[in-house]
Amino acid sequence: MCLQTSYFPDDHTGEIIAQGLQDSLASWKLREDRLVCMTTDSGSNMIKALRLTEWPNLQCFGHRLHNAIMNGMKDPRIDRAIGVCKKVVSAFSFSWKKRRDMAVVQAELGLPSHNLITESLTRWGSRQLMVERLLEQEKAIAQVLGADKKSRHLVPTWQDIDVLESINKAVSPLKEFTDALSGEAYVSVSYLKPVIHLLNNSLLQPEEGETELTKQIKSNILNYLNNKYNDPVTQELLDMASLMDPRFRTTYIADDEVDGIKKRAVTELMSLPAEKSKSQPGTSVQDLHQEEAAEPSGGGCWLCA
Description:
Blueprint: H1 14-27, E1 38-40, H2 44-53, E2 57-59, H3 61-72, H4 76-93, H5 96-109, H6 126-136, H7 138-146, H8 158-171, H9 175-180, H10 192-203, H11 212-228, H12 232-244, H13 258-270, H14 274-279, H15 285-294
Helix pairs in contact: 1-2, 3-11, 4-6, 4-8, 5-7, 6-8, 8-11
Protein name: Zinc finger BED domain-containing protein 1-like
InterPro entries: RNaseH-like_sf, ZnF_BED_domain_contain
Organism: Pogonophryne albipinna
């Protein structure tokens, strides 16, 4: 539910954004101390605004994952291969003849009739899509470009293809998370702990037969994400969200943090205004205490917000 959308003609500096946010909260008579969290992108002005207001900030996972992937691919070999990729895409984008020839070759080789995709800095995950599509159409691209002496030099070398395959192997498992965890129509914060656990223990773990470049990209992405989500305030927020989700409960919360998170949840429920607590359907505080007492060792606690 959107409470307010405001016209914002001023410069988008951290100071002005901070004042606008505080004014919006005040106009709805909402107390700052009841604010659980604010989700933003990773823009420096937004980060500064939240630092000035001293409000808890959880940056959008889709944006943060995009930044992690881009940070993980800082390598001269990757820069060259991506540059080749972009030139190939441009060659087809600006030539209807090459696109026509491409369609013919695709049919001859039994390849999907797909167009090439260009990277967009504002479209999360677009680099991986560009790389994946070029690899899919590699044979058709080589045949079309190789037939024209003016574009023959654009045909990717085997070294470029090796680098692109290493990139695709490292980041293709992540493409589903970018959009899934940056949705506006549903709350996705409780997914963060499970997803980070999945990345650390499965998807971004090195595998036998992978190139060193693939392993390095995975390691760089993991280090970036773990560092960004490592501060205690963020961890406590994610733990509370995970606890409130009956699908996860305490599964992804560190054992030494479980009791503290449960106590905080009960304390916050008990601090709610009595008339609102009675009017809201869900589990009572007494039920929470009973569930906690009856819960077997190591289990979670069912809580209803």
